[in-house]
Write a structure and sequence with these properties.
The protein is mostly helical. The chain has twelve helices and no strands. α3 packs antiparallel against α9 and α7 runs antiparallel to α8.
Length: about 260
């Protein structure tokens, strides 16, 4: 009886989590603008999407900002995590506490703080400020994704490489990084997802003429959501699922190859 109740409980949780996504996908094919009624199957919202310059421009901005922020935050976060992992005692605890601050803080606090900082240094709001704010926002998550994997590594491996004449950078590049690639990839995916999803950081640190998808959707919400938003959300969801399947398949193949080598 307990197993049946557990399964029902789990099923209800999944329904609660994924029902809104299912509704979004279904209504992206709805022939009516009204979200509460079904008027037949259509692909016109996908066609309209290709002819909507505002949505396409905001999507392009979202992708550019997310890709650039992911690359920078992953590189900086990886080397920062390696450095933090080598620290001991009070210094390590202090830096970890500082790293937790942007994670614990509400997004709105970080967004306003960054806006004030950019104003203090007289940096013109636009692409640069949005990208920099996303980088600052994503780096702590990358660090937290990589640190657990670093703590599992055999420290003697790095020391052995240094004893054999490798420079610190060479040892990190060819000894440490290959062993933590899965964690780096996880951190990059998290940074990319957070960057695409974020609204508050983007809203407070953008400039005139620079609008990503979340800001565009917020602007539309006051007049009524364009059903094309359902279409683009569906396409992004499908693209993300395909990416996750490819990454998981690649990881499985790597594990199989390692087992065969052993």
């Amino acid at each position: 009886m307990k197993k049946i109740i557990d399964k029902i409980y789990l099923f209800l949780i999944f329904i609660f989590l994924y029902a809104p996504i299912f509704v979004l996908i279904v209504f992206s094919f709805n022939n009516s603008k009204l979200r509460g009624s079904w008027a037949g199957f259509t692909l016109k919202w996908y066609k309209n999407l290709l002819n909507d310059p505002a949505i396409l421009s905001s999507l392009w901005t979202t992708i550019i900002v997310a890709v650039v922020a992911t690359i920078i935050s992953t590189i900086v976060g990886t080397f920062a995590a390696i450095a933090i992992n080598e620290l001991r005692g009070v210094k390590k605890d202090l830096i970890l506490d500082i790293n937790y601050l942007p994670v614990i803080n509400p997004d709105i606090v970080t967004a306003v703080a960054l806006m004030g900082f950019f104003g203090l240094i007289n940096m013109q709001m636009g692409y640069r400020t949005m990208i920099l704010s996303h980088v600052v926002f994503c780096i702590p998550y990358v660090i937290l994704s990589i640190l657990p994997k670093l703590s599992q590594l055999d420290k003697n491996t790095l020391e052995a490489a240094l004893d054999l004449g490798a420079t610190p950078f060479y040892a990190i590049r060819y000894v440490v990084i290959p062993q933590i690639k899965p964690a780096i990839l996880t951190g990059a995916l998290m940074a990319f997802t957070l960057s695409i999803d974020d609204f508050a950081i983007s809203f407070f640190n953008t400039g005139q003429g620079v609008s990503n998808l979340s800001i565009t959707i917020y602007s539309m919400a006051r007049k009524g959501i364009n059903p094309s938003i359902n279409a683009i959300s569906t396409l992004m969801l499908v693209a993300l699922l395909i990416l996750l399947v490819i990454i998981n398949k690649r990881s499985e193949n790597q594990n199989i190859n390692k087992e065969q080598e052993v």
